[in-house]
Design brief:
about 325 residues; binds NADP nicotinamide-adenine-dinucleotide phosphate; alpha/beta
Length: about 325
């Protein structure tokens, strides 16, 4: 994109990642239009000035997308369809995510958008990849199949207050002194601080060489989920014991995680299914394309805890409803 101040459409502005990207876009002086399903529920940023607007739309309603994308140079795709309280119908998100991405890429092509930046998940196809991680990759492929140059970023779990994976971790470690976990506890992952994710999203928009690429993003630490839980426990001064048992299936663990955390079943079930898959960066081109300081996990957890201690009002997204006293 030649324009150094592109007009940007932000989808997912009410979400964990989008809610934090919005102030960063406005601070960078970028004209930003937020596509939200309900303008009434959307907590607008205090910094919203003349370069800020909101449009109501739904990625599952193709008719609402043309108006949202009109005149936009670039778009952030920070949407997924997981959710709801139903345990039996939690897989419905797969079909919705495909339809949403197909609608979006068609509308973006028609509107002449030059760049899309999508944030999906890490994990390797063919590696018995979970439905959730496969679906995230499929969305990336659909978005990259259009004429618009799409950057697909792939991340493991993001550490930040209000994010579903972090809130699951927080409630589990806070509430259970002796944890009986299945084998996934020793799967390797490369979590990343939300602050670094925002830097990468913005950095990719402003870095022409990132156009059209699929790039892995991760923090500086490759650790197991057990390590992550113990890092959290140390940061909070909690003594925690984790015992591994071979018999606990991901499905069973998602049932009890569902009981213990306020994260909806429709999010817990797909995320827990993915814990069996290693999520580690294989392609590190991002380090040269967007050089930033990567935040170590101890520091990322402490930053998230500091935000939580300031109360839900500090969290710029609807996900602040997850920030309750444990
Ligand atoms: N959180 C993580 O740790 C993590 C890790 C790796 C990758 N990612 C990726 O980051 C992206 C954003 O995730 P997140 O954690 O920010 O999710 P989130 O907090 O659950 O937010 C999801 C957003 O999608 C919007 N949305 C859902 N369906 C929509 C539709 N049909 N039309 C328009 N908007 C719709 C929601 O709007 P409503 O408010 O209207 O529901 C919400 O703003 C996703 O692609 C996810 O896979 C997240």
């Amino acid at each position: 994109m030649s324009d150094s101040h592109p007009k940007v459409l932000l989808t997912g502005a009410t979400g964990f990642v989008g809610g934090r990207l919005l102030p960063a876009l406005l601070e960078a002086g970028l004209s930003t239009r937020c596509l939200v399903r309900s303008a009434e529920r959307f907590r607008k940023p205090g910094t919203g000035g003349p370069g800020f607007e909101t449009v109501e739309g739904d990625l599952l309603d193709p008719g609402s997308l043309a108006r949202a994308l009109e005149g936009m140079d670039a778009a952030f795709y920070l949407v997924h369809s997981m959710g709801g309280r139903s345990i039996s119908r939690y897989r419905d998100y797969i079909d919705r995510d495909i339809r949403a991405a197909e609608n979006f890429v068609r509308a973006a092509d028609a509107a002449g958008v030059k760049r899309i930046i999508y944030l999906g998940g890490l994990g390797e196809t063919g590696d018995n990849l979970s439905d959730h991680l496969s679906s995230r990759q499929m969305v990336g492929e659909i978005l990259q199949s259009g004429r618009v140059q799409t950057t697909a970023l792939r991340a493991a779990n993001i550490i930040g207050a209000g994010g579903a994976p972090f809130e699951m971790l927080r409630y589990l470690v806070e509430r259970i002194p002796l944890m009986v976990c299945p084998r996934w506890i020793d799967t390797k992952c490369q979590p990343i601080a939300i602050q670094n994710v925002i830097e990468y999203l913005l950095g990719c928009l402003l870095q022409p060489a990132a156009a059209g690429l699929t790039l892995d993003i991760g923090g500086p630490d490759i650790i197991t989920y057990r390590d992550l839980m113990l890092i959290y426990a140390r940061a909070r001064g909690l003594k925690r014991v984790i015992v591994t048992v071979p018999v606990l299936t991901p499905k069973l663990s998602s049932y009890w995680i569902n009981l213990i955390t306020p994260v909806p079943a429709g999010v817990v079930m797909p995320l827990v299914e993915g814990l069996k898959n290693e999520v580690i960066c294989k392609d590190n081109r991002i380090l040269d394309l967007v050089p930033i300081r990567l935040i170590p996990m101890e520091e990322a957890v402490c930053m998230a805890l500091a935000e939580i201690s300031e109360g839900p009002g500090r969290i710029p997204s609807m996900q602040s409803c997850l920030i309750r006293d444990v």
